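hi got a favour to ask and not much time before my train. below you get a single protein, a line of residues and a line of whole numbers that encode the local backbone shape. could you go over both lines and see whether the tokens make sense for that sequence. a few lines back from you is plenty, here it is:
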Amino acid sequence: MRDFAAELEQRKQAGLYRSRRLVSGPQQPELTVGGRPLLSFCSNDYLGLANHPGNIDALRQALPDAGLGGAASHLICGHHDAHHRLEERLAAFTQRSSALFFSTGYMANMGVISALAGRGDTIFSDRLNHASIIDGCILSRATVKRYRHGDVSALEAMLAKTTGHKLVVTDGVFSMDGDVAPLRELATVCRAYDALLVVDDAHGIGVLGPEGRGSVVAQGLSEDDVPLVIGTLGKAVGTSGAFVAGPPVLTDYLVQKARTYIYTTAMPPALAAATCASLDLIERSNDRRAHLDRMIDRFRAGARQLGYQLMDSVTPIQPIMVGDNWAALALSEALEAQGLLVTAIRPPTVPEGEARLRVTLSAAHTLEDVDRLLAGLGSCRSFITAMDSPYPEQMA
């Protein structure tokens, strides 16, 4: 029998062991973690809508009519009119012809990719794509070719040598680096080589583009340029679930073929109603996005002044590069001792030697919150530079 206990011990020795934190109360910057108040900078609630009173009220009002449980899959008797209204709302929000709701972002990526490509086909995937995209590629049984991160020329060279059905899939905003994919260039290359382009915009929806319509719209691209956009609702939207939006022929095809859509119980319909309310808020939340941009600028300027190495990101995802697993853990623990919650991200979530603290900002934060984080980072700087880090020149 495989020695599972030994494997767990190896992870502990390598600084890779993961543990869960017990959070009490609603998701918001001031969290209660293990009974202790902490100022959190690690949530994906980018617009601060996860605890918005308007969304909570929309959920409460929908419960008497829609009930609580979904009870069945969408293809049995679980496709409630609340789900249908949400799909129509998502299509309009993303400026697309149709949309299809999935229960989670992971299920959306796995279901869409494995339905649209199979044996004999070829999938081209950015090397830094999310695990759900990677797993969708594996599940498809198609040939998978990974191109260098954001390298459109490398992708083009691969496409030029490949025949048959081709699918290109990329994150819109990369979840661990915070950078945005070169979608315009990708769309041009995919059109030239007759490849179907799929963009997972989990971290762009609500944050980027006019009215928060995402990275695809932000780069001036239409459904003709990017046929399918996948998005999650548990991040900036503040609720739960996911969707894919695009031409009706493709969403209809996914109803027939996407196993993670066909064989799962529908989301509680009242939650779908609350999500529609949240989308209304997002369209009116230019002030929230402007506040978020101000905090991003303030954090980046302050962290650089302190000597920390940041990645090239204009999004709420602001990684602090550390390198060594133990050094990242030590910095996270030192900040927590000051009442600041910023989790350490280590392999295999990021490549070996690229452990980091993933700071994420929310419109629910204040500028004073950002200043408090910078003060904490300042007090920890001399401590962390003494650790074994591959970035001493930036951290000195």
Observations:
- The chain has a mean pLDDT of 94.
- The domain at 14-47+286-395 is CATH 3.90.1150.10 (Aspartate Aminotransferase, domain 1).
- The first helix runs from residue 4 to 13.
